[in-house]
Automatic annotation (TrEMBL):
Provenance organism: Daphnia galeata
GO cellular component labels: endoplasmic reticulum membrane; Golgi apparatus; late endosome membrane; plasma membrane
Coiled coil: none
Gene3D superfamilies linked to this entry: Vaccinia Virus protein VP39
Protein's name in the database: Methyltransferase FkbM domain-containing protein
Length: 351
Protein backbone atom coordinates (compact mmCIF):
# COMPACT_ATOMS: atom_id res chain seq x y z
CA UNK A 1 0.00 0.00 0.00
CA UNK A 2 2.88 2.33 0.63
CA UNK A 3 4.22 2.06 -2.95
CA UNK A 4 1.09 3.46 -4.64
CA UNK A 5 0.98 6.25 -2.09
CA UNK A 6 4.62 7.20 -2.78
CA UNK A 7 4.04 7.13 -6.56
CA UNK A 8 1.01 9.36 -6.21
CA UNK A 9 3.02 11.89 -4.18
CA UNK A 10 5.76 12.07 -6.81
CA UNK A 11 3.24 12.50 -9.63
CA UNK A 12 1.64 15.40 -7.77
CA UNK A 13 5.01 17.14 -7.78
CA UNK A 14 5.86 16.38 -11.42
CA UNK A 15 2.57 17.46 -12.98
CA UNK A 16 2.92 21.20 -12.17
CA UNK A 17 6.53 21.14 -13.29
CA UNK A 18 5.61 19.51 -16.60
CA UNK A 19 2.77 21.98 -17.09
CA UNK A 20 5.03 25.01 -16.52
CA UNK A 21 7.69 23.58 -18.84
CA UNK A 22 5.11 23.04 -21.58
CA UNK A 23 3.78 26.57 -21.16
CA UNK A 24 7.30 28.01 -21.36
CA UNK A 25 8.11 26.11 -24.59
CA UNK A 26 4.80 27.22 -26.12
CA UNK A 27 5.54 30.86 -25.27
CA UNK A 28 8.94 30.62 -26.97
CA UNK A 29 7.32 29.31 -30.14
CA UNK A 30 4.77 32.14 -30.16
CA UNK A 31 7.38 34.85 -29.59
CA UNK A 32 9.62 33.45 -32.30
CA UNK A 33 6.69 33.35 -34.72
CA UNK A 34 5.82 36.97 -33.90
CA UNK A 35 9.32 38.29 -34.52
CA UNK A 36 9.62 36.33 -37.74
CA UNK A 37 6.62 38.21 -39.16
CA UNK A 38 6.85 41.53 -37.34
CA UNK A 39 9.55 42.97 -39.58
CA UNK A 40 8.20 42.01 -42.98
CA UNK A 41 8.10 45.66 -43.95
CA UNK A 42 10.96 45.85 -46.42
CA UNK A 43 12.24 48.18 -49.11
CA UNK A 44 12.95 46.40 -52.38
CA UNK A 45 14.49 47.93 -55.47
CA UNK A 46 12.52 47.07 -58.57
CA UNK A 47 13.98 46.86 -62.06
CA UNK A 48 13.40 50.56 -62.64
CA UNK A 49 14.94 51.50 -59.28
CA UNK A 50 11.59 52.64 -57.91
CA UNK A 51 11.26 51.52 -54.28
CA UNK A 52 8.41 49.17 -53.49
CA UNK A 53 7.03 47.97 -50.17
CA UNK A 54 6.53 44.35 -49.28
CA UNK A 55 4.21 44.16 -46.30
CA UNK A 56 2.96 41.13 -44.43
CA UNK A 57 -0.86 41.18 -44.67
CA UNK A 58 -1.15 39.31 -41.36
CA UNK A 59 -0.03 42.23 -39.18
CA UNK A 60 -1.64 45.67 -39.62
CA UNK A 61 0.65 48.70 -39.48
CA UNK A 62 -0.53 51.61 -37.36
CA UNK A 63 0.74 55.15 -37.84
CA UNK A 64 -1.15 57.49 -35.58
CA UNK A 65 -4.88 57.07 -36.14
CA UNK A 66 -4.51 55.65 -39.64
CA UNK A 67 -3.55 52.27 -41.07
CA UNK A 68 -2.07 53.91 -44.16
CA UNK A 69 1.58 53.35 -44.93
CA UNK A 70 3.83 56.37 -44.57
CA UNK A 71 4.54 58.08 -47.91
CA UNK A 72 7.53 56.99 -49.96
CA UNK A 73 9.65 59.85 -51.19
CA UNK A 74 12.03 57.88 -53.43
CA UNK A 75 15.18 58.71 -51.48
CA UNK A 76 18.49 56.88 -51.70
CA UNK A 77 18.35 55.70 -48.10
CA UNK A 78 14.94 54.15 -48.75
CA UNK A 79 16.45 51.83 -51.34
CA UNK A 80 20.02 51.37 -50.16
CA UNK A 81 19.94 52.09 -46.43
CA UNK A 82 21.18 55.03 -44.39
CA UNK A 83 24.85 54.17 -45.01
CA UNK A 84 24.63 54.52 -48.79
CA UNK A 85 26.64 57.78 -48.71
CA UNK A 86 29.78 55.85 -47.82
CA UNK A 87 29.65 54.16 -51.23
CA UNK A 88 27.98 56.95 -53.18
CA UNK A 89 30.53 56.73 -56.01
CA UNK A 90 29.16 53.38 -57.09
CA UNK A 91 25.77 55.01 -57.77
CA UNK A 92 27.23 57.65 -60.09
CA UNK A 93 28.46 56.65 -63.53
CA UNK A 94 29.48 59.41 -65.90
CA UNK A 95 28.75 57.12 -68.84
CA UNK A 96 25.15 56.43 -67.79
CA UNK A 97 24.31 59.72 -66.13
CA UNK A 98 22.03 61.28 -68.73
CA UNK A 99 18.62 62.88 -68.47
CA UNK A 100 17.13 60.01 -70.47
CA UNK A 101 18.63 57.50 -68.03
CA UNK A 102 17.39 59.42 -64.99
CA UNK A 103 13.86 59.66 -66.37
CA UNK A 104 13.64 56.07 -67.59
CA UNK A 105 14.91 54.59 -64.34
CA UNK A 106 13.00 56.99 -62.10
CA UNK A 107 16.10 57.76 -60.09
CA UNK A 108 15.73 58.85 -56.49
CA UNK A 109 15.33 62.53 -55.70
CA UNK A 110 18.77 62.72 -54.11
CA UNK A 111 20.50 60.31 -56.47
CA UNK A 112 24.02 61.64 -57.25
CA UNK A 113 23.25 61.48 -60.98
CA UNK A 114 20.12 63.62 -60.60
CA UNK A 115 21.95 66.25 -58.53
CA UNK A 116 24.83 66.27 -60.98
CA UNK A 117 22.51 66.80 -63.96
CA UNK A 118 20.79 69.74 -62.29
CA UNK A 119 24.07 71.41 -61.36
CA UNK A 120 25.64 70.97 -64.77
CA UNK A 121 22.70 71.56 -67.12
CA UNK A 122 19.74 73.15 -65.37
CA UNK A 123 21.04 75.64 -62.84
CA UNK A 124 22.19 79.20 -63.44
CA UNK A 125 24.20 80.98 -60.76
CA UNK A 126 22.91 84.23 -59.19
CA UNK A 127 23.91 87.44 -60.93
CA UNK A 128 26.80 89.33 -59.27
CA UNK A 129 25.74 92.06 -56.86
CA UNK A 130 27.73 94.66 -58.80
CA UNK A 131 25.60 93.98 -61.88
CA UNK A 132 22.59 96.37 -61.90
CA UNK A 133 19.03 95.12 -62.16
CA UNK A 134 17.31 95.48 -65.52
CA UNK A 135 13.71 96.04 -64.50
CA UNK A 136 10.80 97.34 -66.52
CA UNK A 137 9.55 99.46 -63.62
CA UNK A 138 12.35 99.96 -61.08
CA UNK A 139 10.22 102.45 -59.12
CA UNK A 140 7.76 99.72 -58.15
CA UNK A 141 9.41 98.50 -54.96
CA UNK A 142 7.00 95.61 -54.31
CA UNK A 143 5.34 94.17 -57.44
CA UNK A 144 3.75 91.28 -55.52
CA UNK A 145 0.00 91.07 -54.93
CA UNK A 146 0.41 91.29 -51.18
CA UNK A 147 2.29 88.07 -50.54
CA UNK A 148 5.64 89.73 -49.82
CA UNK A 149 4.25 92.05 -47.14
CA UNK A 150 2.23 89.25 -45.56
CA UNK A 151 5.15 86.84 -45.32
CA UNK A 152 7.45 89.55 -43.99
CA UNK A 153 4.96 90.28 -41.21
CA UNK A 154 4.82 86.60 -40.25
CA UNK A 155 8.61 86.25 -40.30
CA UNK A 156 9.19 89.72 -38.78
CA UNK A 157 11.29 90.73 -41.78
CA UNK A 158 13.74 87.88 -41.09
CA UNK A 159 13.90 86.45 -44.61
CA UNK A 160 17.08 84.90 -45.95
CA UNK A 161 16.26 82.10 -48.37
CA UNK A 162 13.23 81.84 -50.65
CA UNK A 163 11.98 79.68 -53.50
CA UNK A 164 9.64 80.88 -56.23
CA UNK A 165 7.74 78.63 -58.59
CA UNK A 166 6.69 80.01 -61.04
CA UNK A 167 8.94 83.06 -61.30
CA UNK A 168 7.50 84.36 -64.61
CA UNK A 169 9.74 87.17 -65.93
CA UNK A 170 11.29 87.82 -62.51
CA UNK A 171 9.42 91.10 -62.02
CA UNK A 172 5.73 91.00 -62.87
CA UNK A 173 3.76 90.05 -59.74
CA UNK A 174 6.99 88.71 -58.25
CA UNK A 175 6.49 87.60 -54.64
CA UNK A 176 10.19 87.79 -53.83
CA UNK A 177 11.74 90.72 -55.71
CA UNK A 178 10.99 93.10 -52.83
CA UNK A 179 12.67 90.75 -50.37
CA UNK A 180 15.69 90.49 -52.60
CA UNK A 181 16.12 94.23 -53.20
CA UNK A 182 15.29 95.43 -49.69
CA UNK A 183 16.52 92.59 -47.47
CA UNK A 184 19.30 91.02 -49.60
CA UNK A 185 17.81 87.53 -49.48
CA UNK A 186 19.09 84.69 -51.63
CA UNK A 187 16.96 82.10 -53.30
CA UNK A 188 15.91 79.94 -56.23
CA UNK A 189 13.64 81.02 -59.10
CA UNK A 190 12.12 78.25 -61.23
CA UNK A 191 10.38 79.04 -64.50
CA UNK A 192 9.41 76.44 -67.12
CA UNK A 193 8.11 78.83 -69.77
CA UNK A 194 10.94 79.42 -72.25
CA UNK A 195 10.09 83.04 -73.05
CA UNK A 196 9.49 83.97 -69.40
CA UNK A 197 12.72 82.31 -68.32
CA UNK A 198 14.68 84.26 -70.92
CA UNK A 199 13.19 87.49 -69.58
CA UNK A 200 13.92 86.33 -66.04
CA UNK A 201 17.61 85.88 -66.81
CA UNK A 202 17.76 89.40 -68.28
CA UNK A 203 16.57 90.88 -64.95
CA UNK A 204 19.91 90.04 -63.29
CA UNK A 205 18.18 88.63 -60.21
CA UNK A 206 20.41 87.78 -57.24
CA UNK A 207 19.15 84.22 -57.13
CA UNK A 208 19.69 80.84 -58.74
CA UNK A 209 17.45 80.35 -61.77
CA UNK A 210 16.37 77.15 -63.48
CA UNK A 211 14.42 76.56 -66.73
CA UNK A 212 12.62 73.41 -65.53
CA UNK A 213 9.30 72.43 -64.04
CA UNK A 214 8.75 70.76 -60.70
CA UNK A 215 7.92 67.09 -60.97
CA UNK A 216 4.55 65.79 -59.80
CA UNK A 217 6.24 62.47 -58.98
CA UNK A 218 9.10 61.77 -56.55
CA UNK A 219 11.57 61.32 -59.41
CA UNK A 220 12.66 63.22 -62.56
CA UNK A 221 10.35 63.06 -65.53
CA UNK A 222 9.66 64.60 -68.92
CA UNK A 223 6.27 66.18 -69.54
CA UNK A 224 4.42 68.13 -72.17
CA UNK A 225 4.19 71.76 -71.13
CA UNK A 226 1.52 74.17 -72.34
CA UNK A 227 2.92 77.70 -72.40
CA UNK A 228 -0.18 79.26 -73.91
CA UNK A 229 -0.79 82.65 -72.26
CA UNK A 230 -4.42 81.79 -71.56
CA UNK A 231 -3.45 78.94 -69.21
CA UNK A 232 -0.43 80.78 -67.74
CA UNK A 233 1.68 77.69 -68.32
CA UNK A 234 0.81 74.22 -67.09
CA UNK A 235 1.63 70.54 -67.45
CA UNK A 236 -0.64 68.65 -69.81
CA UNK A 237 -1.82 65.42 -68.17
CA UNK A 238 -2.37 62.28 -70.20
CA UNK A 239 -0.26 63.41 -73.15
CA UNK A 240 2.76 61.29 -74.03
CA UNK A 241 5.82 63.21 -75.12
CA UNK A 242 6.75 60.59 -77.69
CA UNK A 243 3.53 61.20 -79.61
CA UNK A 244 3.60 64.96 -79.33
CA UNK A 245 4.79 67.41 -81.95
CA UNK A 246 6.31 70.51 -80.38
CA UNK A 247 5.00 73.95 -81.26
CA UNK A 248 5.88 77.43 -80.06
CA UNK A 249 3.47 77.14 -77.13
CA UNK A 250 3.43 73.39 -76.44
CA UNK A 251 6.67 71.49 -75.99
CA UNK A 252 8.39 68.86 -73.90
CA UNK A 253 9.89 69.99 -70.62
CA UNK A 254 12.21 68.40 -68.09
CA UNK A 255 10.92 68.24 -64.51
CA UNK A 256 12.75 67.55 -61.25
CA UNK A 257 11.37 67.12 -57.72
CA UNK A 258 11.66 70.18 -55.49
CA UNK A 259 13.90 68.32 -53.06
CA UNK A 260 16.33 67.56 -55.90
CA UNK A 261 16.55 71.27 -56.69
CA UNK A 262 17.16 72.15 -53.03
CA UNK A 263 19.93 69.58 -52.68
CA UNK A 264 21.51 70.87 -55.90
CA UNK A 265 21.76 74.43 -54.54
CA UNK A 266 22.70 73.18 -51.08
CA UNK A 267 19.72 74.78 -49.32
CA UNK A 268 17.19 72.59 -47.53
CA UNK A 269 16.28 75.30 -44.99
CA UNK A 270 13.92 77.81 -46.58
CA UNK A 271 12.11 80.81 -45.11
CA UNK A 272 9.50 81.25 -47.84
CA UNK A 273 8.23 79.01 -50.65
CA UNK A 274 5.94 80.53 -53.29
CA UNK A 275 4.08 77.83 -55.27
CA UNK A 276 1.89 78.80 -58.22
CA UNK A 277 1.73 76.30 -61.09
CA UNK A 278 -1.87 76.48 -62.26
CA UNK A 279 -3.18 73.19 -60.91
CA UNK A 280 -0.29 70.86 -59.99
CA UNK A 281 0.31 72.34 -56.53
CA UNK A 282 -1.14 69.44 -54.53
CA UNK A 283 0.81 66.79 -56.45
CA UNK A 284 4.07 68.72 -56.06
CA UNK A 285 3.55 69.05 -52.31
CA UNK A 286 3.13 65.27 -52.00
CA UNK A 287 6.61 64.70 -53.46
CA UNK A 288 8.40 66.70 -50.77
CA UNK A 289 10.14 64.66 -48.04
CA UNK A 290 9.07 67.00 -45.26
CA UNK A 291 11.28 65.23 -42.72
CA UNK A 292 14.28 66.30 -44.83
CA UNK A 293 13.49 69.99 -45.26
CA UNK A 294 12.80 73.01 -43.05
CA UNK A 295 10.39 75.34 -44.85
CA UNK A 296 8.97 78.00 -42.54
CA UNK A 297 6.21 79.55 -44.68
CA UNK A 298 4.40 78.88 -47.95
CA UNK A 299 1.89 80.63 -50.17
CA UNK A 300 0.12 78.18 -52.49
CA UNK A 301 -2.38 79.01 -55.20
CA UNK A 302 -5.43 76.84 -54.61
CA UNK A 303 -8.20 77.86 -57.03
CA UNK A 304 -6.94 75.65 -59.90
CA UNK A 305 -6.13 72.60 -57.75
CA UNK A 306 -8.40 69.65 -58.73
CA UNK A 307 -8.06 68.12 -55.26
CA UNK A 308 -9.34 71.33 -53.67
CA UNK A 309 -8.01 73.61 -50.96
CA UNK A 310 -9.39 71.43 -48.14
CA UNK A 311 -7.43 68.38 -49.31
CA UNK A 312 -4.30 70.48 -49.66
CA UNK A 313 -4.72 71.83 -46.13
CA UNK A 314 -5.15 68.33 -44.73
CA UNK A 315 -1.92 67.33 -46.46
CA UNK A 316 -0.06 70.28 -44.97
CA UNK A 317 -1.51 69.73 -41.49
CA UNK A 318 -0.35 66.12 -41.68
CA UNK A 319 3.14 67.47 -42.30
CA UNK A 320 2.97 69.80 -39.27
CA UNK A 321 1.83 73.05 -40.90
CA UNK A 322 -0.93 75.42 -39.87
CA UNK A 323 -3.28 77.17 -42.26
CA UNK A 324 -2.61 80.79 -41.41
CA UNK A 325 -5.27 82.19 -43.75
CA UNK A 326 -6.28 82.99 -47.32
CA UNK A 327 -5.02 85.76 -49.58
CA UNK A 328 -7.80 86.91 -51.87
CA UNK A 329 -6.26 89.70 -53.92
CA UNK A 330 -6.86 91.05 -57.42
CA UNK A 331 -4.58 88.53 -59.10
CA UNK A 332 -4.11 86.00 -56.30
CA UNK A 333 -6.13 83.24 -54.66
CA UNK A 334 -3.63 81.70 -52.29
CA UNK A 335 -3.53 79.96 -48.96
CA UNK A 336 -0.79 80.76 -46.45
CA UNK A 337 0.79 77.91 -44.48
CA UNK A 338 3.11 78.40 -41.50
CA UNK A 339 5.29 75.74 -39.96
CA UNK A 340 3.79 74.53 -36.67
CA UNK A 341 6.79 75.31 -34.46
CA UNK A 342 4.82 74.38 -31.34
CA UNK A 343 4.15 70.83 -32.50
CA UNK A 344 6.90 69.32 -30.36
CA UNK A 345 5.49 71.02 -27.25
CA UNK A 346 2.05 69.44 -27.50
CA UNK A 347 2.89 66.67 -25.05
CA UNK A 348 -0.68 66.52 -23.77
CA UNK A 349 -1.62 64.58 -26.92
CA UNK A 350 0.35 61.63 -25.60
CA UNK A 351 -1.88 61.26 -22.55
Amino acid sequence: MRFPIRFFSISRLLLPVLFLLTLYIFSLVVVDSFYSTENRLEIVSSQNNEPKRVVSPSIPLHHGDSDELPPKYNLMEESYGKKWTKKRDKYLSSANCTVEYANKNKLQQDHPCVIRLIKQKYLRQPSPKNLPYRLGDPQNVDPSDGQAQGILRILRNQVNITITLRAYDGETLSNTLYMERSFQWSGLLIEADQISHSQLVDRNRRAYTSPVCLSTKPYPMEVVFNATVGTLGSILDGVKSAKHTSTDNIYTMQCFPLYSMLVAVGRTRVDYFSLDVEGSEYKILTTIPWHKVDIKTLTVEWNHVPEGEAAMTRLMEKNKYIKFGLLEMKFSHEVVYVQDFLNDLRKFEDY
